[in-house]
Q: What sequence folds into this?
């Protein structure tokens, strides 16, 4: 190993890269539940075990809380005496930049496909994919491609490969990161699992890295409502078995990615067996849900009426009630039972409130997988409309573009899903 450079795996999607006694930290999330308390780390990181005395930069890929985790960032800021610069993607929406500056960080906005050279000789180039970002990091001795959560097509991966002929370490998400099928639909979920494994195999053949490092999936679904997905999770051991022998490096917290190890598979297997589920969330009142639904209806006034569905019903499991959102008459109704003509999904009242109230509610609810889809078209359309209120460029789409982009809320496109 080059004594001047080290690449250390910390947890989930977090790395610590040191060169010439200066450190770059990537996507730190060290403890606590995220995505409306629906995800938990397989193993928390003890803050007291970390030494950030040489930390100069933090690179953040995107605003999902398993990558942009404000409690972790606040702890680092409060326990550091030096100036730390956060490197974040250049984008139209400045909410992340403003929030980071409010904590006290300096923020360097990084355009896509532009080389950034740091003082210690590290070179970074980012590649944007919708609201996510991948990065290539060149050290004095290695080229690392952190694809992260980006769902690049093979042609997009070939573009990266043309720029970087030799990639030593390729890091990518390796298991589910949200809804892939209802509980009780094992064939659907197994099909998604096969598609993800096939994607990893095809991407590996395209990139041809020295090593693949399974990354950004060291979590479990920690709510009773989404626990069923844990039984289908793709393990590091499975990844190792489906890619070329000897070309998969399974990391564990604190290990160097520049040294081979055979401890990773055993380390994570024991963590998968010790999952602890969170308690069911509290009931939300009909009054609170009605207020949130009315506000959501008001927000959708930015859309022409012909872009909106007529009526969407949602079955609230814990209240034994249905919520009807009538987009054409701008009315919100509650009633017992359900009308199958308009029913889109069923979920708990707390998840419904989160979906309606939070700007990023659609993206988060899809990642939590704390719901069951009863009518795919109505549910996906509802989520897309909600997400379009948060992401300005979505709102600029024509009706045709709106319809075809509904599938963007799904992480993997599957032939098994009904066509739009």
A:
């Amino acid at each position: 190993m080059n004594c001047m450079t080290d690449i250390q795996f910390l947890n989930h999607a977090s790395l610590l890269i040191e060169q010439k006694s200066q450190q770059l930290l990537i996507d730190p999330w060290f403890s606590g539940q995220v995505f409306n308390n629906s995800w938990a780390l397989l193993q928390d990181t003890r803050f007291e075990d970390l030494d950030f005395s040489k930390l100069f930069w933090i690179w953040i890929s995107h605003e999902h809380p398993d990558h942009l985790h404000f409690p972790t960032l606040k702890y680092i800021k409060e326990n550091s005496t030096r100036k730390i610069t956060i490197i974040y993607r250049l984008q139209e929406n400045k909410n992340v930049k403003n929030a980071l500056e409010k904590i006290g960080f300096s923020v360097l906005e990084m355009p896509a496909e532009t080389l950034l050279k740091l003082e210690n000789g590290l070179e970074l180039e980012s590649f944007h994919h919708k609201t996510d970002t991948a990065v290539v990091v060149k050290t004095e001795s290695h080229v690392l491609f952190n694809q992260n959560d980006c769902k690049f097509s093979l042609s997009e991966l070939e573009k990266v490969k043309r720029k970087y002929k030799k990639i030593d370490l390729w890091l990518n998400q390796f298991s589910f990161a949200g809804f892939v099928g209802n509980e009780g639909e094992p064939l659907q979920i197994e099909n998604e699992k096969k598609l993800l494994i096939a994607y990893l195999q095809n991407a590996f053949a395209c990139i041809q890295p020295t090593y693949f490092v399974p990354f950004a999936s060291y979590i479990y679904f920690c709510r009773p409502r989404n626990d069923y997905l844990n039984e289908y999770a793709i393990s590091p051991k499975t990844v190792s078995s489906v890619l070329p022998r000897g070309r998969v490096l399974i990391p564990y917290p604190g290990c160097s990615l520049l040294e081979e190890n055979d401890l990773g598979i055993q380390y994570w297997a024991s963590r998968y067996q010790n999952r602890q589920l969170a308690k069911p969330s509290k009931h939300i009142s009909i009054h609170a849900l009605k207020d949130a639904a009315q506000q959501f209806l008001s927000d959708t006034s930015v859309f022409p009426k012909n872009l909106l569905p007529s009526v969407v019903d949602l079955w609230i499991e814990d209240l034994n009630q249905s919520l009807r959102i009538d987009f054409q008459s701008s009315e919100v109704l509650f009633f017992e039972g359900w009308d199958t003509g308009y029913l889109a999904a069923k979920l708990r009242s707390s998840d419904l409130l989160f979906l309606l109230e939070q700007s990023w509610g659609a993206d988060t609810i899809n990642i939590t997988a704390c719901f069951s889809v009863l009518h795919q078209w109505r549910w996906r359309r509802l989520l897309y409309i909600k997400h379009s209120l948060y992401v300005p460029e979505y709102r600029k789409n024509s009706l045709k573009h709106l319809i075809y982009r509904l599938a963007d809320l799904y992480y993997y496109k599957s032939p098994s899903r009904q066509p739009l």
